[in-house]
Amino acid sequence: MGKPTHMKMYTSTGAHAANVEPARPVSDGLAAESRSGAGRVKLGIDIPLVLTIATLLAFGLLILYSASMKPSLDFKGTPYYFFLNQVKWAILGLAVAAVTMYFDYRKLRRFVVPMMLITVTALFLVLIIGEERLGARRSFLNGSIQPSELAKMVIIIYLAIWIKSKETILNRASFGLFPMMGILGVMAGLILAEPDISAAATIIFLGVMMFYLGGGSMKQLLLVGIVTALIGVLVLNISTSLNATFENRWTNYANGLKDPILASDHLQRSMESIVRGGLFGVGIGNGTVKFTGLPVSHTDSIFAVVAEETGLIGSTFTVILYLILLWRGLKIAQNAIDLEGKLLAGGLTVWIFAEAIMNIGVMVNLLPFTGNALPFMSSGGSSLITVLAAVGLIMSVGRVAKREGKSAKGRSYGAVTDLRWRDRRRRVSRPRRSASIGR
């Protein structure tokens, strides 16, 4: 009695053997490793990026709860419809992000062609059986699913893989420029037929950006710009509805620059929200402009609600969050182990940031009206799921680099143009950086 059952075992080698710690079980060793730095490297999660996305998503849901009350009442007779719908899409989007984060992005090349075919098919079907709203066919399921949002992400994935495969012959017009123009033309043309000028322009912008980051020559990029402009003018002249929409948006934008009183009602309500918000805002839920004429307060105009209810402080905080997202995404792109990863992470990051800047710029009349959603905040399932899936792919690039231990310390990327990896020759060799990085 009183003696412990786990008595120390002594060996014939001497008394000092009593102090030898018994071998730990394998499971204990694995648990310790998962708590060590090696375990953290294996996970490869960019903590600042994760915290930024979590904050944007949580803040976005809070603002959407306030901004969507009137639209929900008008649409379904309950003030919570769009908020609850967004929560559902957020849960699904987080699950998709988890899958894409732990999926090796290099395996996407197996699925990229079916992804493109599905996207083009969806863009075609929405023109036939899509819901017609305000003279346009762009969505399914009460506006929750817009194939054009999926097209933006898919075109980046496709071009990242396509440019990598054509890397050595990219600057040959017959192998690089013309095929890319054909790819972009099909997608942009289908989106323009909805019609959706801003989404079509975004597709062109993303294609040109990816071509430039992949190493396309300036001559070819200039040619793309000229051809795109000529086609755009031709399409606008042929289509009366597109021409009227474009002229109306440009006229409202120009008038707003001259005098805010001459701006459109949409912009005037947005400016009213900003003025009412002041420095600290009126408080979340206490905004009134969303009830007195601010159009689509839960989608395109949600930043105006942010400005009124959280003021300059909250608006600046929101912009800073998107800047952090840009910084961490470009950092991951910089450390990618191959050109495909650099293009994928860089392209997806710039796309999300550009969507945010365009939406915010419209609300303060720095840009003509575009209709772009504010990522992580605007109501809409397709937008939320695609940006969360894109964030997962960005983190997948970071995980692969950390897991293989080949992330290189490249030059500092202080601007978007620094993401261009065309000239990867170095005058002085750098330690711990193989010559194959980025090729």
Features:
439 residues; 2 strands; two-stranded antiparallel ribbon; 15 helices; disordered N terminus; mainly alpha; 2% strand; globular
The shape is globular
Radius of gyration: 26 Å
Report the span from N to C terminus: 72 Å
Q: Largest sheet at a glance? A: 2 strands, antiparallel
Strand tally is 2
The helix content is 55-70%
The total number of structural domains is: 1
Sheet with the most strands: spatial strand order: 1-2
Helix-strand pattern? HHHHHHEEHHHHHHHHH
The residue-averaged pLDDT reads 79
Class inferred from helices and paired strands: mainly alpha
Q: How much of the residues is beta strand, in percent?
A: under 5%
Individual helix count: 15
Low-confidence region ranges? 1-21, 23-41, 406-418, 421-439
Fold and architecture overview:
This protein has a two-stranded antiparallel ribbon with strand order 1-2. It is built from 15 helices and 2 strands. It is mostly helical. It has one domain.
What is the structure about, briefly put?
With 439 residues, the chain is mostly helical. The protein has one domain.
Topology:
Layout: H1 26-35, H2 37-43, H3 47-67, H4 69-76, H5 81-101, H6 112-129, E1 131-133, E2 136-139, H7 147-165, H8 173-192, H9 197-213, H10 218-238, H11 240-258, H12 265-277, H13 302-334, H14 339-363, H15 381-404
Antiparallel strand pairs: 1-2
Helix pairs in contact: 3-5, 3-13, 5-15, 6-7, 6-8, 7-8, 7-9, 7-14, 7-15, 8-9, 9-10, 10-11, 12-13, 13-14, 14-15
